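Q: what sequence does this backbone want?
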């Protein structure tokens, strides 16, 4: 998992592009959503988070007769809310700020994402700075909303990680 995090993303662009073309996902939102849902960082983050859960809690749940599914849903998942919130914020920000991947995947101008659409304010001979500033201000609103929704869990997750 750690070694895949060390591979630069630019190295994987061509193989991922070919995969999306073979799946028939070119010019569809599936090509943006599905690859963005899974990351080596997420696997590493959850592994570190769940390794901090004491074995005694899991053993106590087993002694109470809970199945593995029940232990996951009743013990492990509630203790991982902060990790889920942190990963949700990071994943959203990484995908929201991405320019190259949506530019390659979406060819229809009507489906194009905001990060690529901001480029339209740059003309050949000048830039509409007023329009660019207004559009950029609107582009920040979803980021602020996501942060406000997950703020409490995100800060709790950071402070819990600093005490270990």
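A:
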């Amino acid at each position: 998992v750690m070694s895949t995090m060390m591979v630069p993303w630019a190295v994987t662009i061509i193989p991922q592009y070919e995969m999306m073309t073979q799946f028939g996902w070119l010019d569809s939102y599936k090509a943006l959503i599905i690859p963005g849902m899974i990351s080596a960082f997420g696997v590493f983050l959850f592994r570190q988070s769940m390794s901090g859960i004491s074995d005694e809690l899991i053993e106590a749940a087993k002694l109470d007769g809970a199945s593995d599914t029940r232990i996951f849903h009743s013990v492990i998942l509630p203790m991982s809310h902060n990790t889920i919130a942190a990963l949700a914020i990071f994943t959203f920000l990484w995908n929201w700020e991405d320019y190259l991947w949506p530019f390659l995947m979406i060819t229809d101008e009507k489906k194009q994402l905001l990060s690529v659409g901001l480029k339209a304010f740059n003309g050949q001979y000048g830039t509409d700075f007023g329009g660019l500033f207004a559009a950029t201000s609107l582009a920040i609103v979803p980021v602020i909303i996501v942060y406000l929704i997950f703020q409490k869990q995100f800060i709790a997750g950071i402070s819990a990680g600093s005490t270990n």
